[in-house]
Structures are given as C-alpha cells and as structure tokens.
Amino acid sequence: MKISNTFLRRSVATIVGMLALHSAASYAARCDYVIQNEWSNGFVAAVRITNDTSTTINGWSVNWRYTDGTTRTGSWNANISGSNPFTATGVGWNDRINPGQTIEFGVQGNKGVANSPAQKPVITGAVCNAVASSSSVVSRSSSSIPLSSSSFSSSSVADPSSTSRSSSSRTSTSSSSFSSIPLSCPQGNSWPDCPPETWSDEYCALLPLICRRSSSSSSLSSGSSRSLVSSSASSISSMDAHPLDNPFVGAHWYVDPIWSEKAKGEVGGDKIARFNTAVWMDRIGAIDPAEGFGLRDHLDAALEQGANLIQVVVYDLPNRDCHALASNGELAQGPNGTLRYRTEYVDALAAIFSDAKYSSLRIIAIIEPDSLPNLVTNLSDPECQLATDPVHGYVANTQYTLNKFSPIPNVYSYVDIGHSGWLGWDNNFSQAVTLLGNAIKGTTAGVRSIAGFVSNTSGYTPIYEPFLDSLAGSAFPGSGGGTQVRQSKFYEWNQQFSEVSFVQAWRTRMIAAGFPASIGMLIDTSRNGWGGASRPTAQSTSTVLDTFVDQSRVDRRIHRGNWCNQPGGIGERPQATPAPGIDAYVWVKPPGESDGASSLELSFDPLDPAKGFDRMCDPTYTASETNLGTGALANAPVAGRWFPEAFQLLVRNAYPALDDVPASSSVQSSSVRSSSSLAISSVVSSSVASSSLISSSLASSSLGSSSSAVISSSSSSQGSSTQANQAPIANMTITANGPTILVNGRASTDADGDQLTYVINFGDGETIQYPEAWHTYLATGSYTVTLTVSDGTTSTSTSEVVTAQAVTGNRAPIAMLSATRSNLNIIAYGSTSFDEDYDSLTYLWDFTTEEFPGNSTHIYTDCASPSSVAVPRLITLTVFDGELADTQQVSFNKPCGLFEDKISVAEFTWRVVGNTLYVDGRDSREAAFLMWDFGDGGSASGLVKSHTFTEPGVYLVKLTAYGAYMDGTKTVEISVGQISSSLSSSSVRPSSSSSVQSSIASSIFSSRVSSSVSSSAISSSIVSSSRSSSSTSSDRNLYTAPKAQVAPAIDGTVDAVWDSANWALIDVFWLGTQPNPSAQDYSGRYKALWDENYLYLLFDITDERIFDGTRNALERYWEDDTVELFIDENKNGGQHEYNTSAWAYHVSTYGDVVDYTTSGPKLLNDHIDVRLVSMGDKHVWEMRVRIYGENYSDALANTPLTLTAGKLMGFSASYIDNDGSQQRESMMGSVDTQGHKNNQGYQNASVFGSMRLVE
User: Fold this and answer.
1) SS3 for 420?
2) Confidence bin at 848 (pLDDT 50/70/90)
C-alpha cells in the first residue's frame, strides 16, 4: 500500500492553510495492471488500485480477462475467484483504501504465447469506473483551533516542496463554523486517536503533518508562508548535525503506513497500529521496487509524518541465515554474491541514506540479524562453516557494510547479537564478545563504527523473568545449595534468563573490551510480552525443580530454542531509555509478519523464492536435538507475509495488556466479521455493479443472474418468555438464485442482549445451526424455510415459503466436510468440495468461535495439552465459487490427545446415458479426496465426474476415498451402452424430471475434459494407489510417454494436460530395511510427458512422514526421502557411476538435484526444475527435466538435447522412503528387471527400464 505524496502535499496546504475539509465530486480509483517480471513462459504482475478521490473506499472488487490463452497459477494479497474472467477482492486488511492511497495484489501466471510479452489486460470494476455524483462542498473553519501549543488559521501555507498554494483557490461555496476543538499532539512515538465525530478521514490521515514536534512552541499566523518539513526554532536538522549518544531520546518515530493499515484490519489492531516498526530491506529488489513501497518511499513518508527517526533492517548477506531455511536469502556466498551484496545492495542503501534530503532523519540500521552469532554456535553446519570465509564470509561483508554506513552522520548502526537463550551460556557469551568485538574493531572506524547492539530481533525472550531473575545465579530454594535453578531442563545451565540482564552484561563486557561507554543496547519487544491467562502471577511453591521453573516462568515456549511463530504476545511498547544502558525498546519485527511457512505446501513465495521450509516452523515436527515439539502455530505463510492468526494472538497475549481488546479462545481467525454482516471474499456477477460484499444488505440487491429474487420474511413468535426475560425477535431474509438460496438471520435481535443461537430448517429435511447459510435444493418446488433463534431461555421462529427453480446459469458448488482429531489439533477437510462449472473455490471456516478464510484443509489447535478438556463444537464450512456458495456443518467432540483412526467410506451413485457414465461421490464420508477407476484403464479425481467408454460392456467401477487413517473403497459392476437408471443401493439421488440434479446431469461434462477440480494447493486430488498398472503397455518396464499438447506449469498443481498420460506404479521393492511398506506408509506412481525441450514428470507419493536428516544437499542424499530418476538418453546401458553417460538423479524434498559425476557428488539444480506440494501425507512432485547426451562434460558448457517422437531412452523411477532411520527403509522402484539387481541403477544403466516418446 503506497501513500501518494502528491495527495498529501496538496491536502496539507488545504487543511493546514484553511482548515477546510471538503467532500467534492466523487471520482473513481485508478486501476492498473503492471508486469513486474516475466520470462519465456511465465510472468509476475501486480494489480494496483489508487484512490484519487476524496472519499475512503471501503471494499473493492476488480475484474480482468486474458484473451491470448494466458492462465493464472497463483496470487497473493487478494481473494481470486473465477477462471477467465477473474475477480479479485480484498483480504481484510486491504479492503479499505484511504484517499491518496494505493493497494496492490500480485498475480503469477503462464503466458498464452511463449516467448512473447506478457499480456496486460484492462482492469475493470465499479471501483475503477467514474461515478458521477454531486455533493456539497463543506468547509470546517475556525478562527482559532488549538493544536497542542500551535494554532493555525486560514493562511497561505507552503507544502513540503516549497510551492506556495493560495487558500483562496480552495474556498468552499458554503461553510459551517464550530467551536475550537483541542487536539493533543504526540510527545513520543505514537499519534493520538483522531475523534471521528469531529474530523474526517482526510484530516486524521494528515494529523502527523499538522502536529510538529519541536523544543519550543510555534504558530502559523495569517499571512505567513512556510514549509511544514522545515522545523521550528530548535530544528531537527541542527539537532542531528552530529551523531547523538542515544538517537532515540527526543525522537519522533516513523509509523509504517503499510503495516499500520494491516494492523488496523485485525481485531484489536487499532491499539498498536500507531507504533513504530522497522522497515525490512531483505532483498535487493526491496530497495527500489518497480511497484510498491521502496526505501525512499518510506523515508519520504517519514518526512511527511514529521518523524525524525526510522528503523531499517539491513538483511541480505550472502548465505544468509545459514542454520535455518525459512529466511534463506537471494545471494549465494562467493565472488559473485559478494559483488552483488556490496554494489547492488549496501552501496545502494548508503547512497540513499546519505541523500541530503534525509539528513534530518535519524536512521537506525539494524545490521544483519542472526549472522555473526551463527559463527559462534553453528559451525557444525556446513553452510555456517562456509560463512567463515575471510573474503566472502559474514565478517568481511559485515565490515564492508559498517564501513559504508559509519561516515554518514545520521546513520546509527546496531549490530545483532542473537538473544540470551542463544548466547547466554558463559562459553558462548565469551566467544561471541570476542568474535563480534574483533569484527567491529576491524572496520575503518573501529569501535566508533556502531552505535550499539540489538538483541532478541524477531525473538520471544522476555525482558524480565520477574519470579526467576533473582535466582539466575542462585541455588534452588530448599535444595540446600546443591541444585542451581539454571540446571532446569528449560534453562539448561544458561544463567541468562531474560534479555535486560543479558544486554546489560553484554554492554559491560564490550566496554571492558575497549568499546566506548556511549554504546547502547536495543531489545526487540514486539512479541515477547507473554501475557494472557497463562502468565504466572507468583513464584511457584513446588519443590521439584522443573515444575518450579515451569510454573514460575513467563516464557511459555516448549523450548528456548523454538524461534518460529511462537504463541507470544505484544511486549513493551517502543520507548527510549527504559533501563540503564539500554537506548530503547524497539519493534524490529513487525507484529503479524510470519517467521516462516508451517508446511512445504505453504513455503513458496514467487517474489522471494529463496525462502524455504524449515521444520522448526512445522507444528507437527519434533526436533531431534531436543526431542521436543516446535510449538509453532499452524497455517503460517512464508516468512515476512502477513499472518492474521498470529497477530490476533499477539494482541490478546500482550503484556502490558492493551485496553479493551476482545478475548477469544481461538488463534485461528484471520478475518473477523461483525454479527450483522458476512464478508464473502469474492462475490461478483454481471448484474451486481456496486458491491463485492454479501452482507445483511444482500436482501436488497440482486445476486448472480436476472432471475435472482429477494424474499423478506415476517416474524411470528412461537415461543414464550418469562417475566424476567424478553423473547428474542427472529428476523430472516432469503435470497434465491434458481435452486440455491442464502438464508440470513443475523438481523435477529434480543432486547436483553443475550447471545443467540440459530437453527435454519430448509424444509427438505436439511437443517443447520448457524445464523447464515447457503443451500441448494435437489428438486424444484416450494419449500418452507424456518429460522429459530434462542436466547437460552425462550425461542422464536419465523418462516417463509421459497420456490426452487431449475438452474439457468452458474451452478452452486458442493461443500464437503469431514474432521478428525490429531492430538492437540482438529484437522478439517474440505478438499473434496466440488464445483460443476470448474470455478475456483474459496473457503470460509468457523470452529464455533469466529469466521475466517482459509485453505481447503485446515488445522485448528483447540487443546493446550493432551490432558486438556476439549470443548464440543460445530465446524462450519462455506465454499464459494465467486457467485454462489454452499454451507455444510459437522459436530465435533473428540478428546484432546487422541490420534483418531477414522476409516474413510466410499459411496457413490451413478447414471448411464449411452456410453457415458455419470458418477456422484458426495455420499462418501471422512474423505480427504476421491479417486475413480472406471475399469477400462481410465481414471479421474473429484466428487462428480463423467466418463465415456469406447465400446459397450460391463465394467467394474471403483471409487477410493482417501482419508487421514485408512482409505475406503467401493466397487460396482455397471453396464454401459444403453440408457440405464441403475443407481447404487445407498442414498439414491432423485432422477425424475423434477430433480434439479437430473435436469442438469446430461450437461455437466459435455464441454469439459479436466481433472483439475480443487482449488487447494493440490488442485486435482492425489491419484489412486491401486496395485494394477495403468500403463498402456503390457511390459511394466516400458513406459510410453505422449507428447504434451501444452507445456505443464511446474507448480505442483496437476493441470489437465496430464490427462493424456498414463500412470505407472512405483511398487517394486529394491532395497532397504522394510521390504513391504503399508499403503499408509508409502505408495507411489508417476506420469511422463515430453516436448522438444523437456521431459516432464509427475509423481504422486503417499508418505506419512517426509524426512530429510540434513539440509546439506551433498550429504547422505541417498538415505533421506528422495525421488530418484534413472535416465540413459540413448539406452546404451553400461557403467556410469563415475561418468556422465547416464544419470541417477536424487531429487530432495527441498528441490535440490544431486548425482555423482566425474568430480564426485555434484549439485545439478540446473538439470531439473522441481516443485513439491504436500497435503498431509499426500505429495505431488512436478518436474521439468533437461536431457543431455553422452558427450556431457563437467568442464564444458552443455546444451540439452532436442527430443523427437520415437526416441527410446533408458528410464526408471524410484522413491526412497525413510521415516527417520539412520538408513533408507524402503527404496521402491518402477521396474523389475529379472536377473539383475534393480538397486544397482546408480552404477549400471543396464538395469534401467525404458521410455518411448510418442506423438
């Protein structure tokens, strides 16, 4: 989100000069589609909406269409629905666009025409179109309005660009006067709340420009002209002419408007949205992006706010974050990485910092978090050992950064020192003091090159342990002196229990080592508050050491080393000089930004693809070093992305507490809606021009098509009330679209203020306990819909008759919902939900707390421990296709700690027309996804499918329902070749002429061939693990690969182009300690396609645990979970272990590709492009392989071969399954070559199978 400088400067002249705030004629926002990056086959684009009006935009919806075959593969910061045309709406925090602001969201896709410029479609929508409206121009004026100690009158005031604007040019035609209204300007780092009853949004946005911080009062009198950027008598410029001992003293801190707006969009976020947070420069592209806020934009905004202090995180070292994966950087260590870091990154930052325009700003540079501390404790990691390189390592590049920044007088560098739980042990502490001290002393300015050090960056360690700090170096009370408190399992002999004592000790040691007494310390307190109900209020009385510590400590982490997305709380607010030796408490990590993705499925960021998946961010992972869980929150996005659930938890757990923040028992909500409105992420149709939100006002607007009808209900009390209680009033509206209705009872009221419960009876035998729900009738006709509301004492009902008509346009999706208990979590599956029009689906969840958008599968944590008492709850899922929706609900009451072994049940109905079979699997239960086998070699995935047989006959049709524990199957013998009304014996669906389903069944699939029906990350479901090969060849060792009609996108999404290829099983045991893995432990198969440039491979693997024992791609790569490809391009066979005549590629779970070449094990990521997407124990690998000839040489530049039809290659596929053992447990292969040892493919290409390329 970017604030228009032009708007602010234009507006400040108006408001400060005249105090005239007006609402002029309304104009539309500018809607732009900008290509940010493109390559031969794909692109990344941004859609930008700029509000050039004088009115706040609340809620927006935009549309676009590609005309050249371009397809969308991903998006961020918007809810996207539809499939060309597409519709986008906000995601909550960016729904509101203030005047002069810009929001943007991203789109990634595949080009319709390869090697041509990416198409730039026109963005349309009501927000983009001019709105002809006239409104009176209102001026708010006063002869004198006190603003702190300054007063303003209708004078001519110069804007920050020193261009004088006459007040007469903005005079309104009518005005109204009101008395003077005092507004208190801030005296610290935050702005006061703006009184909405008095001032408009425009004024509130400009308050930072009007309120000026100075050492003496000033006033702008009539006729004066001066720039608001220049300061008063005691100017900021003169104050910062020379470096300050503590730059935070007397500072006015910058508020990042992007983060602030996100915070305001969350529950309780307005309580902290006015505080300073650091700006992260975590890649070269962040400095001056093509679109969005760059470094200069932030510095300019700081000037316009009247701020004189801004924090900037310098964070792009080559080989960054060497011991973790979630924040891996873009630069590899080596000459090229060093060159780019210094010239494109550090030099660029220094050039901007030194711009005279920003000389009044105190720029706090946070230097490379988690870098130098890794050289103290993590040298056993090869990546960190590499970082010790004296030329290209961490120390050399950090010294270069300090050398560039130290000559700039208004830049104050603070070097990161980890935190007390990392470097607090005596040995670590001493080594760190020496290493960091020597590194800084080695700079040009030596110890004068820095202002100080910063601890706990992005961390969770509390500033104090109020009940334990005094015992950090003492014996456990009652132990007689023989047991130290720091011996506890939580502190592990580390005597630094908290951050204040740690940084004060660090400062003392550094001064003793020759650093000046002026050095100061910073502590990041953004997330280390640890408040809430679980915060201890007194020291424990237990006589058991670990119990005593656990009951006394405010840090509630499972282990002090757990760093990723912990359930902490907002800590101390940013403030100067909070304790001796400490310059400030700061918020370096903006609350609400993720530490890292919680699963491989969520770990890809197209704008920062170097960031990886770290198992310490996985809530299901147990760390091998500690044998303890990570404690990480579920459903976390990539590092740096907005994480609403975490933000809301931080706000609720704030310490000191925030005032008036609603309590909640859930950390799952990412979007909260009021009791009177339902925010649907994408609801747009050709007949709805004014809104993309369905709320309680939906009853007065059309929906979907011209046949939409709105039916208002009338209430009739059917309950009774006591004298002490007034009965609630049931109020219901119904919106109908063909056979689909939306029932909204949120307008029901209770005079006593009691909380209401709702039951909707749809009149066809279906009910739901929810205030608002979508429902589709299976047959046309009239139905009586009844809403019953209860306040716990009495109930009231209202009824209305609706008429379900045959569908005439878009068909509503079908929501499918099941849930299972897994220890502390509820795993809810909506992934078998289906849309008959193949529209993309979005999902709205409610676990009896509050609604929030999510993925097709959601993990909800409702238990604090296995012994907690679980609360019975209703789980509600609403699935949207962009216009219509379906709501389903299940009750859930399973005890905490249970690992539920729930068997999936496969059920289906069918209908035959000629040689075409229509199947419907919605009677299946406890299924994560469904797979069909039609008995003629054909297969498909999804809820409702059709299949046309080539000839009449009797076929065994099998449905497999895959679940969390055990799969279920159902097989039915079905005759085709004549119209049949044969239906399954269970839950037969109507087939009469009155049935809506029957009336549309013949057209469901008449114009489509696609297996991509789910909008989850795995867009088509994982394939069957049937033990019969679907290859067309009778020789299981020969695979026939068809030519791809369209190149598959390598994104882990199973596109329809894969339908033309057959599956081949990977089910032959080759090697390992477990020769017969269960179907739950492992099953797998693959498909292949090709074109002139590449061989394409699709792997479907069931593996209950993905294991990679080391992040080093070249270490033990043959033992961990790996896909192994054996390729001999000319099928010559022979030995290849020490040459490159054939390949045995090992493809890791991280996407690294390794084989043993003439120079030993070598990383060959340029040979294969790979993407892995996981959902539970189902994993899809998609690969694009370059095929090289026998003349390949490590020492030469090699060109891949051009592939042609008829080519015969040696080929085998293998999967190595290891669930945590020291060696592989099951190496499973695709071929069984009699008389040979299949597992010797890494040495001998003669044991490979074959692959034939065909048109």
Assistant:
1) helix
2) confident
Average pLDDT over residues 153-181: 28
Three-state DSSP class for residue 648: helix
For 949-961, what is the mean pLDDT? 90
Q: Please, are residues 214 and 232 in contact by the beta-carbon 8 Å criterion?
A: yes
pLDDT at 35 over 80: yes
pLDDT at 692: 27
583 is catalytic: no
Active site residue 1120: no
Question: What's the CA gap between 151 and 169, in Å, rounded?
Answer: 22
Q: How many CB atoms lie within 10 A of CB 39?
A: 11
> Contact 212/232 with Cβ under 8 angstroms?
yes
Beta strands in 794-915 (DSSP E): 795-804, 818-823, 825-829, 842-846, 851-854, 857-861, 873-880, 885-892, 898-899, 909-913
Strand 733-737 and strand 628-629: the pairing is: unpaired
**Terminal CA-to-CA distance of the chain, rounded, Å?**
49
pLDDT for res 799: 93
The pLDDT of residue 33 is above 50 = yes
- pLDDT confidence of residue 44: 81
CA-nearest of 43, 44, 22, 48 to 33 is 48
CA distance 106 to 104: 7
Among residues 282, 595, 750, 1103, which one is catalytic?
595
Kindly report the number of other CB atoms within 10 A of residue 660's CB atom: 8
Residue 662: which of 267, 1132, 1077, 1210 has the closest Cα? 267
d(CA 949, CA 566): 54
Query: Token pair for residue 358?
Result: 């920003």
As a whole number, mean pLDDT of residues 651-680 equals 48
The alpha helices in 19-127, defined as continuous H runs, are none
- SS3 call for 47: strand
* pLDDT surpasses 80 at 152: no
Rounded CA gap, 289 and 672, in Å?
A: 32
* CA–CA dist 878, 843 (Å, integer): 6
Which backbone phi and psi does 1000 adopt, to 5 degrees? -110, -5
CA distance 520 to 115: 55
- List domains and CATH numbers for the chain: 30-125 (2.60.40.290), 257-653 (3.20.20.40), 733-804 (2.60.40.10), 901-978 (2.60.40.10), 1038-1253 (2.60.40.1190)
The residue type of 648 is Q
Please tell me the number of Cα atoms within 13 Å of 638 on its side-chain side: 17
DSSP letters spanning 546-596 = HHHHHHH-S---SSTT--SS-S-B--SPPEEEEETTEEEEE--S-TTB-SS
The one catalytic residue in 297, 370, 1103, 1108 is 370
pLDDT in tens, 780-824: 889 999 999 998 888 999 999 999 998 888 889 999 888 888 888
Structure tokens at 1111: 């992040």
Give the CA angle between residues 457, 462, 465 to the nearest 5°. Answer: 155
pTM score, two decimals? 0.44
Q: How crowded is the C-beta side of 58, counted as CA atoms within 13 Å?
A: 4
Q: Which residue has the higher pLDDT, 226 or 1049?
A: 1049
Q: Are 16 and 152 in contact (CB under 8 A)?
A: yes
**DSSP three-state, residue 302:** helix
Measure the CA dihedral 665/668/672/674, to 10°: -40
CA dihedral of residues 541, 547, 548, 554 (deg, nearest 10): -120
Backbone φ, ψ for residue 87 (5° rounding):
-130, 135
For CA atoms 494, 496, 502, 504, the dihedral sign is: negative
Taking the C-alpha atoms of residue 1214 and residue 1230, their distance in angstroms, rounded to an integer, is 6
